[in-house]
Amino acid sequence: MRRLSPFNLVSLALGLAFLYVPILILVVYSFNASRLVTVWGGFSTRWYVALMQDRALQEAALTSLGIALASATLATVLGTLAALALTRLGRFRGRLPFAAMIYAPLVMPEVITGLSLLLLFVAVGFERGAATVTIAHTTLTMCFVAVVVQSRLAGFDRSLEEAAQDLGCPPLRTFLTVTLPVIAPGIAAGFLLAFSLSLDDLVIASFTTGPGATTLPIRIYSEVRLGVKPEINAVCTIFIAVTAVVVILASLATRRAERREAVSS
Amino acid sequence: MPRAVAPTPARPAGRDARPAGDRAEKHRPMVRFDTVTRRFADVTAVDRLGLDIREGEFFALLGPSGCGKTTLLRMLAGFERPDDGRILLAGEDIAAVPPWQRPVNMMFQSYALFPHLTVAGNIAFGLKQERLPRPEIDARVAEMLRLVRLEGLGGRRPHQLSGGQRQRVALARALAKHPKVLLLDEPLAALDKKLREETQFELMALQERLATTFVIVTHDQEEAMTMADRIGVMNHGRLAQVGTPAEIYEQPRSRWVAGFIGDVNLIDGTVAAIASDGIEIADAAGRRFRAAGAPPVQTGDAVTLAVRPEKFAVATGADAAGADVAGAAPVNSVAGKVADIGYLGDISVYKVRLDDGTVLKASVTNAHRHTTPAIGWDDTVRLSFPPAAAAVLTE
């Protein structure tokens, strides 16, 4: 291990501070006893208790969770299929445009994705609500799943599948008992990524949502416009905790699989 | 097509368990390639190839990379379809049988162990596909672990094993279903030299004990020579020669085979005379050589004489003097200057330049412990070989 010089240490501290001090302040003030958001009035968990009574926020959180689960599941299935097509079908006609179209949402400004989806839903007369947000989030997140799963598939040793078939396992069962378990960490990481992306999306959700389907970010945003309330700090802290856990799980899943592969190949 | 399941699931280890009647059938072809062709885009990987592999035989497919040997093996496993010709397994055409229904198993070059399963899970994988009862699977897995000396490691994951252990798991997994034919694709390529040599003998002992037909693909001629009963030498999708290791080494069928297997000196010439006990060949420099045997040639035919480096007797000092003209010197004897010496420990290799510039390679066993070489650079030496040591090649 290389020792860090004082200069490196200071740079590291400043960089981390830039990233995390705002979040830290938010977390600290969520335990503030005072009603004033900028004045420290001692430690208290009263805003967390207050949350328990805030029906609107709870409903928004449930809506968000439902949408995140549904869209992440859909995105995982579609993204995995897209990744399989890109890695397994060889150089089929239209492979390049297909890949480009799958990856486009990665770089597309969310405002444009949101607006175009809104126009589409209006044009086809689709009633806007939780379903439209779910569809919108699926389009946004499936490309992330495709990227993650594709990187797993690229390192997949095809002779594993041949070995399974050679040992008497028909193709479909081979896919279920060998291919899927081996690429499962990639799929899990993709799912968790899609889940957290959907959970904290504000822009696309606000374009595509309708009455009765308010997601948590939309709710928080609308409350903050009327002035920051301490309850919001508490909600956000819980939110950060959930997202952090999901992201850590995702990276652990990939790390574990990579370590297993590194030795066995 | 029914799967091959041995009548006795638990073979007694350590002795030949073949039924007595089996021996008579030893020469029935287990595998027959009948004018098989396989093309990839513009390359013909296997070209109208015919080959019989006998039951219980250890057969090696040997050839340079890209010669089609792996394609041939993969066609037998079912991963490639022949474009033309038939492949018979125990007399049955297996063209329409998919890989998962063929009674052959393959050991992959990369081992292809399932990383998400334990060693025991890997070995049991094929047995579970047959839906055997649990106790029988457990018994067979234990038997296989014993066979490859991995007792006690059944609970490990592949990444917790050494390279040699993984190789043995792959072998056990492929043998667990008691296949009619075991296919081995460069099975020892990933092992270091010492382990590879040990494993060669282990594989031979195993094959003898199980009496299963083994077909191994290798580019390593030493490996093929050591292990195989017969070798098929492949080049450009065709079999250049099929025979026992000794046949291929001592009587190669073509210049290419002679050069591919081991070291060889090729001397071009024409047939000068045919006698009852052999033929006489004259090379471009007027030297005369005699070769024993009765090759199908006529006087005046262009032929090549193949002499392995170890067939030469190397004489130094006064014995080395004298002319090379026929009659004045003993038969099959040439003199030259040592141009290069390679000391390999067990043997020394000498490159000897003759008067006309031809370079011949001779190897001598270092039977004595010389630290100062007996033969030095630019020494004049005489190389000679008996007529029976030379092979006459017409192709």
Automatic annotation (TrEMBL), chain A:
Keywords per UniProt: Cell membrane, Membrane, Transmembrane, Transmembrane helix, Transport
Top-rank lineage group of the source organism: Bacteria
Subcellular location(s) of the protein: Cell membrane
Main location: membrane
Keyword Transport: yes
Membrane topology classification: Multi-pass membrane protein
Keyword Transmembrane: yes
Domain called ABC transmembrane type-1: residue spans: 61-250
Gene3D superfamilies: MetI-like (1.10.3720.10)
TM regions (residue ranges): 7-31, 61-86, 98-124, 130-149, 175-197, 232-252
Record-linked InterPro entries: Bact_Polyamine_Transport (IPR051789), MetI-like (IPR000515), MetI-like_sf (IPR035906)
Family statement drawn from the similarity comment of this UniProt entry: Belongs to the binding-protein-dependent transport system permease family. CysTW subfamily.
Protein name as catalogued: ABC transporter permease subunit
Species this chain originates from: Rhodoplanes tepidamans
